[in-house]
Amino acid sequence: MKLQCPHCGVRGTADDSLRGRSVRCGRCAKNFIAGEEQPPFEAEEKIAVTCPECGRQGRMDAALRGCSITCPGCGSVFVSPPPAAPAAAASAAGSSPRHVSEQEPEWKRAPQSLAGGESGERLIREDGDFDVVGILTSSLGHVVSGGFFFRIFLGSVILFILSTFVQLTIGMIGNVVELVVGSALVFALKMAFSIGFGGMIFGGLLWLALCHCRGDSLEMEMVFHGLAKYCRWKLFTTRLVGFCLVLIGFFLFFVPGIYLFIGYYFAQLLVLDHGIDFWEALETSRRAVHRVFWKFSFALSLFYLPWLFFLAAVLRPFVGIAIKLVEIVQANPEVVDNSGNIDIKVIRSVVDGYGEQLLLPLFLYVIVTIFYMVVTPVFKAEVYQRLFAGRRESEEKTH
């Protein structure tokens, strides 16, 4: 069934089973009854504002009078005209700015930073609804609605090509430097860049999924939002530091690594949505997940179970090939040359024997992996909305 939030006007769809039940709007986080006839939504009055730094003009909701806002042009933060001074606002609207343009879409603007000394703890919902079945069904519903599958698939292909080009370029430059300098430090820097850059560039897919789950209008430009000025290096450091801590955790008896991998699951979304620093994002994500650790771990297991099933189906023939080669080497040591390599003809004969067992599982695995590439950002965004306050909700609480 189709829905429209009576509070902010965003449109969306929901399962018919939710008719008559209280649902939460993904954009403004306010509740209303699904399927119940609502009064027609009336958009709030708009007022004109001018950035005092760069002179850029735009329009905003009148309800935001007196609030701190961020200029989409230069990134400076200033206070909008207060209700007590409407004349000043009108005067500003009629002045001749240096740059005149329409207000950019809501999704493009940088979020307001947390006030000094404020913790990301306030972003965690106290009454988070964590219905495992509801999360999984809602995630699948978002994937197949509104042409989203095609958009995020196309976005994934574009970002993959861009990422491959950049990383190959950096890799070639690094190889040349490594040959000249001959230092292992160059290899470590290449790996660090590859990890951090992946978090930066693929952050746009998470942002596209979050906007879709909130009911916002989608634009293909959203897939590049991970490169936005306010968040790109924060995404880079969040991914890099999180990866290193998880890796250290795996070396420390494995269990800490699993805990941190699950705990840091939403750190990048927190950076994108609220613009907080990497450490605050990592810790806020970990604290929120810790409260529902076993429920979330169960949901995560159910979500990835089909993919693991197909992965096991693909690995099974390879395990059989490895066992068969070991048996051949033990029975005929002469198939191994002086360098310890097995005769390529022997390897081909064994692989050919498993040809039919490899093709179908491998094909299905590729299809399932592409599907998970699309649905994983939606799953993250769906759970994120249930555990954390959205950008607008957080800014309303601040003011």
Protein model, in words:
- By secondary structure, the protein is mostly helical.
- It folds into 4 domains: 2-33, no CATH class; 46-104, no CATH class; 136-296, no CATH class; 304-387.
- The protein contains 13 helices and 8 strands.
- It has helices at 86-94, 132-143, 148-181, 184-201, 203-213, 232-251, 255-263, 267-274, 278-291, 293-331, 344-353, 355-387, 391-398; strands at residues 2-4, 11-13, 22-24, 31-33, 46-50, 57-61, 68-70, 77-79.
- The strands form 4 sheets. A two-stranded antiparallel ribbon has the order 1-2. It has a two-stranded antiparallel ribbon with strand order 3-4. A two-stranded antiparallel sheet has the order 5-6.
- A hairpin with a 6-residue loop joins strand 1 (2-4) and strand 2 (11-13).
- Helix 3 runs antiparallel to helix 4 (184-201).
- It starts with a strand and ends with a helix.
Strands, count: 8
Helix-residue proportion: 55-70%
Give the averaged pLDDT, no decimals: 79
Distance between the termini: 35 Å
Q: Provide the spatial order of strands within the biggest beta sheet.
A: 1-2
Q: Which ranges are low-confidence, i.e. pLDDT below 50, for 5 or more consecutive residues? A: 84-102
The shape, in one word, is globular
Question: Largest sheet, if any?
Answer: 2 strands, antiparallel
